[in-house]
Design goal:
This protein is of the alpha+beta class. It contains 23 helices and 12 strands. It has a single domain, classed as Cytochrome p450, CATH 1.10.630.10. The strands form 4 sheets. It has a 5-stranded mixed sheet with strand order 1-2-8-5-3. The protein has a 3-stranded antiparallel sheet with strand order 4-12-9. Strands 6-7 form a two-stranded antiparallel sheet. Strand 1 and strand 2 form a beta hairpin. Helix 11 packs across helix 12, helix 11 runs antiparallel to helix 16 and helix 11 packs antiparallel against helix 17. The chain is globular, with a radius of gyration of 31 Å.
Length: 539
């Protein structure tokens, strides 16, 4: 008998397959969980050095006994610098409102970099004036070492440091002294008349409505081109040329410089990126344009194409070339130094002054009455009379207070020093530390300026601004040895334009009330088109 064949029946295993498949799935899931866990651990290990790099200094001020405004991990105390969702003025305002009156200063962080934020105007005055020897440089002068190819920025005292700053400032400032501007005053007189002639034609064509930002920049481009290079830029005489090359290049140059300021501050989290990406403050295109303009203007003056006896900045540049052997690049650097002071910020200041006057017709009429009562029969003022009108001065300074076009100044500690935090406590400040002075906050603090958002020129009656400057409360041009060297130039341009415009026109508010807003950088100013109505007086 043959043994029975044993045939294996696998059918009874079917009941076990789901369980087997589940076991396999569990194994796969387990492996996946392990893989995810290992990935997370690896990610944490990779992120840990970055986290430590970003937060390493967060105890910096606590160890030194200074109250600290708590920073965010990556963004620091001023998140808007990186997110661009808030303006630096607004970020500073939150800190200022929380700690002002309780402390003279607080510790903050610009991304990961420790910084001191001043809250007391007296301390601001100490930094800018009283203890200047320990705060000789500004933050911009610390940036320039990362802009190695930016030759004209390096020749501007705004960006310079140490002895280089002192030399550049001395050479550049001599050409815009009060006495020299007085000799060149006819440039502003003629420019003012050309401005009102241009406006008269435009209001007829545009039903009295003029976009005032463009108007102001046309004027400042004209007087700067005439004063610095001795040329007619055509912004007031050839308005149909669109775009005007001089105005286009000047606007591109200044807007790029101020934009790069915000980029340099934001890139403090990785300063090496400035060198790797070859950051610069002036575009190469404008470097070439202004270099050629300076060269051609000098050649024209020397050939007798211009008035050889004319007192302007070009004649000063020629003196520097002949007496101090200044190079061509030196001359271009000095020319752009004056351009930086006299074009964009002065044009923006004029824009705001006209807007505030349009919003306040009673103030405007009071100013017009003062001007007309002092003007000659041809509705003009000589240099001395222009600077002797008290209400005009009050209007200008109140406009500068309210707009606060340079809303903060940041100084660099150049020699170790101390800050007296209170009667019993001092803070030791190391060389290289930066310290911010929030003048926008001072200018809009109701403790110093009651009803701070209102336009009230009478605040500065009897030259009150001088005392407020000495107290560190009012700082439209900064203060101390590094005060803006273009103050006389800016005031001359502002006052002259206002006198000529108000003699000929009533400035009327536009259809919509505009509100200054935070821009992409540091300021809170009027944005976009500013349409105002200009009604010409019948003669």
């Amino acid at each position: 008998m043959q043994p029975e064949s044993h045939i294996f029946d696998f059918s009874h295993f079917d009941q076990y397959w789901p369980r087997a498949r589940g076991a396999c799935n569990n194994t796969e899931r387990g492996n996946m969980y392990i893989l995810v866990s290992l990935s997370l651990i690896l990610l944490h290990l990779l992120l840990l050095p970055i986290y430590l790099y970003l937060t390493w200094h967060h105890k910096y001020w606590r160890k030194r006994g200074l109250v600290t405004a708590r920073p965010l991990t990556l963004l620091g105390t001023y998140p808007g610098l990186l997110t661009r969702k808030s303006n630096l003025v607004h970020d500073v305002q939150k800190i200022y409102d929380k700690y002002k009156g309780k402390h003279r200063a607080v510790g903050v962080f610009v991304t990961r970099q420790p910084q001191i934020l001043v809250l007391d105007p007296e301390l601001a005055h100490e930094v800018l004036v009283g203890n200047f020897r320990c705060y000789k440089d500004s933050l911009t002068s610390s940036y320039i070492r990362h802009a190695k190819s930016d030759k004209y920025a390096r020749l501007n005292p705004f960006w310079a440091s140490g002895q280089s700053w002192r030399r550049l400032r001395s050479d550049a400032q001599a050409g815009i002294s009060g006495n020299r501007l007085k000799q060149a005053y006819n440039i502003w007189e003629q420019g003012g008349k050309m401005l009102t002639d241009y406006m008269a034609k435009q209001v007829m064509q545009k039903n009295n409505i003029l976009e005032t930002r463009d108007l102001c920049f046309r004027y400042t481009a004209h007087v700067m081109a005439d004063f610095i290079w001795g040329i007619d830029a055509g912004t007031l005489t050839r308005p149909m040329e669109q775009p005007n090359q001089m105005q286009q290049m000047a606007s591109k140059w200044t807007s790029y410089a101020f934009y790069m300021l915000s980029i340099f501050m934001a890139s403090i989290v990785a300063p090496c990126s400035r060198l790797l990406l070859r950051f610069r403050f002036y575009p190469k295109e404008t470097d070439e344009f202004f270099s050629n303009l300076t060269k051609e203007s000098i050649e024209m003056r020397l050939k007798g194409g211009g008035d050889a006896t004319r007192t302007d900045y070009l004649s000063h540049l020629l003196q520097l070339r002949d007496q101090k052997q200044a190079t061509h690049d030196d001359l271009v650097g000095h020319a752009l130094t004056v351009m930086l002071d006299g074009y964009d910020t002065t044009g923006t200041a004029l824009l705001h002054a006209l807007y505030y006057l349009a919003e306040n017709p009673i103030i405007q009429q009071k100013l017009r009455t003062e001007i007309l009562s002092s003007a000659e029969s041809e509705k003009s003022l000589d240099f001395d009379k222009l600077f002797s009108l008290p209400y005009l001065e009050q209007v200008v300074y109140e406009s500068l207070r309210l707009s606060s076009l340079i809303p903060q100044y940041t100084k660099v500690c150049t020699s170790p020093t101390v800050i007296q935090l209170n009667e019993s406590k001092q803070l030791h400040v190391e060389a290289g530390m930066t310290i911010m002075i929030p003048n926008y906050q001072f200018h809009h603090d109701k403790q110093y300026f009651p009803d701070p958002e209102a336009f009230k020129p009478e605040r500065f009656d009897n030259a009150t601004y001088q005392e407020l400057m000495r107290k560190g409360i009012f700082l439209p041009f900064s203060d101390g040895p590094r005060i803006c060297m273009g103050v006389p130039l800016a005031l001359l341009t502002l006052k002259s334009a206002l006198v000529h415009i108000l003699c000929e026109f009533q400035v009327v508010r536009g259809r919509e009330r505009l509100i200054p807003k935070g821009d992409a950088g540091f300021g809170v100013v009027l944005q976009g088109n500013v349409d105002l109505e200009y009604r010409r007086f019948l003669r």
